[in-house]
Amino acid sequence: MKQTLRRELTNIIFLVLIVAAAVVIYLLSRAENGTSAIDASPTPASETVSKQMSEDTESVDASAPSSDPEESSTTRGVPESVFKTHLLSSELYTATPVRNKPTTYTLIWNESEKTEVLLTYELRNGDLSSLEITFQLPEVFQGKPKSDIEKRLSEASESLASANDEVIPALLLDLLPASDAKDKLQQTSIRFWTEEAQRLKKVGDKFEDTLDGYHFIAYRKQGNVLQELVCILYLT
Q1: Is 68 inside any structural domain?
Q2: Cβ–Cβ contacts within 10 Å for residue 81, how many?
Q3: Which structural domain, as residue segments, surrounds residue 43?
Q4: What's the rounded Cα separation, in Å, for the pair 135 and 192?
Q5: What local confidence, expressed as pLDDT, does residue 14 receive?
Q6: Edge-to-edge strand list for the sheet holding 206-211
Q7: CB atoms inside a 10 Å sphere around CB 79
Q8: Are residues 59 and 164 in the same domain?
Q9: How confident is the chain (236 residues) per 10-residue block, as mean pLDDT?
């Protein structure tokens, strides 16, 4: 009897230990599965969107061209369309394009006397890179005219000389700033260039100056009929 009870008690204890071990194994298994689920959980939506926006921004920054004028343009000149609008809308002169020369204009200063000035410009990537202005200079007569022809020629030269005193400074002060996209040309500098250009007295005389990246040249040459004063502004 005692042996039977002892054997049953042993069996009960053995079953209790088996059940306890099973419970412990089950609980440990659930704990491990929970940890794995947390580690493998997807990235929150807000974090994913933020990361995507950051990558898109970097991509745009790397591919978008620079909007800085200093980097995107190789000249200080304005676009051709802007300069042509200035020429054709000016009240100082009448600008007429020269046939078969799309970047050359004749500027008529005085409608009654037809004082003509030749303007030519060059382009780089659609922007002005240089500007050339040619003024006709009066012929110098020595002594008194000896005939009616000489008298008329002398009067025409005096009229042209008087007109140039007004035309040369006025056109340089109008056209040089109009060609400058940086708005850094000072009127005092242009007046100084003008005065030096008007001091040139004979063919071959030349004046040259640079200022803040602008290069100005003026020289006298012999034209087809009269001597000419050529003024050039380089904008590169």
Answers
A1: no
A2: 9
A3: 2-63
A4: 18
A5: 61
A6: 94-98, 101-108, 116-124, 127-136, 227-234, 214-222, 206-211
A7: 15
A8: no
A9: 57 62 61 52 48 49 44 81 96 94 92 80 96 88 62 60 85 96 92 96 96 93 92 95
Q: In this structure, are 152 and 44 located in the same domain?
A: no
| Judgement on whether residues 17 and 115 belong to the same structural domain of the protein | no
How far apart, in Å, are the Cα atoms of 99 and each of 28, 89, 103, 118? 96, 20, 10, 13
On the 0-12 / 13-18 / 19+ scale of CB atoms within 10 A, 40 is exposed
Residues 117 and 167: beta-carbon distance below 8 Å: yes
pLDDT of residue 109: 86
Ramachandran category for residue 183: left, alpha or beta (phi over 0 → left; psi -120 to 50 → alpha): left
CA dihedral 76, 77, 79, 84 (to 10 degrees): 160
Tokens of 130: 């240089």
Please give the tally of structural domains in the chain: 2
The reply to whether 161 and 96 lie within a common domain is yes
Residues 147 and 118 reside in one and the same domain: yes
